[in-house]
Amino acid sequence: MELRYAQQLVEEILQGKHRSIARAISHAENGSPEAQEIVSLIYSRTGKAHIIGITGPGGSGKSTLVEKLVRELRRRGKTIGVVAIDPTSPFSGGAFLGDRIRMQDLSTDQGVFIRSMATRSNPGGLAKATKDAVCVLDASGKDIVIVETAGAGQSEVDIIKVAQTVVVVLAPGLGDEIQAIKAGIMEIGDIFVVNKADRDNADKALIDIQTMLELGSETGGWKKVITKTIAITGEGTQLLLEKIGEHREYLEKRNTGKKQKENLESELIEALKQKIAEHIVAEMRRKGELDKLVSRILAKEIDPFTAAESVISELLKKPVGSK
Ligand SMILES: Nc1nc2c(ncn2[C@@H]2O[C@H](COP(=O)(O)OP(=O)(O)OP(=O)(O)O)[C@@H](O)[C@H]2O)c(=O)[nH]1
Ligand SMILES: [Mg+2]
Questions:
Q1: Which residues surround ligand 2, an ion (CB under 5 A)?
Q2: Domain final position from 221, 254, 287
Q3: Which regions of the chain are under pLDDT 50?
Q4: Does the beta carbon of 271 lie inside 6 Å of ligand 1?
Q5: Which of 31, 84, 109, 240 could cross-link to 123 by cystine, CB 3.0-4.6 Å?
Q6: By residue range, what is the domain housing residue 134?
């Protein structure tokens, strides 16, 4: 029964039906078992879309830029899927509402699918949910899938790893910005954008970022590029799209090899972690061991990490601490 529901949904996704895409993404968002079935069924049909990640500090102009990119790509006859990760901070909630209004007219365009996903946690985590949503959009036949996420923490880095091309959007005058890119986004960024180039200190920001990128020694491969945009007018979007295209060509030339393999490796590791944990927890619950162990942790007899180690050792039938 369940499987038939998933099969039906998948059929419609492959036909590009937006309602079914939306439904599948809801399953991904909730981390429901259906999500896994759907991904398994569509996986062989994925891999055609160019997946672009747009990240950077809150308020740097990502959504405004995404909207302009979408419009330009539509003019070029491309179909696009957008997944925007809702900002965690309630302060940015207003900005997101703005996104919806800005993009409203695009919602009647069959060539564009826009969806926001909440940061509330689900069993598999938001990075997994995003990955699944991207899979659905890719399989549905969209030429380009854009993932927008704010911030520069580890969770954003995990989310954005789904992208083949990562665009980091910065804006001049944000003091924390350089700190933010140091915190991990810098390594994964392929293209850096100084948005709000209409502001006075845009050139200074450009030079600062350039200096930083030169410091981060590049060992062959893709040379990170910086470009300026004014997202509110759309200025610089054409050039940015060219850079994005060049990055895609670069990936194709090198056989998409290394990065994709790395991404797939971490995906497999994540899947293993989740499955192993699920399996062990179910076993422990069944035997009533989970409760016992939690009580011991509560009584400070053992810490959670050592407890986990002892469970694994028991499982592997090896004494604690042996390699
Ligand atoms: N002056 C100027 N303002 C801009 C530009 N691009 C965006 N803005 C403004 O900056 C504000 C934030 O823009 P958003 O596109 O919502 O920024 P964001 O990065 O998506 O924000 P979050 O999703 O909350 O992280 C809005 O008021 C935009 O109108 C630009 O090029 N120049
Ligand atoms: Mg935004």
A1: 62-63
A2: 254
A3: 89-98, 323
A4: no
A5: 31
A6: 47-254
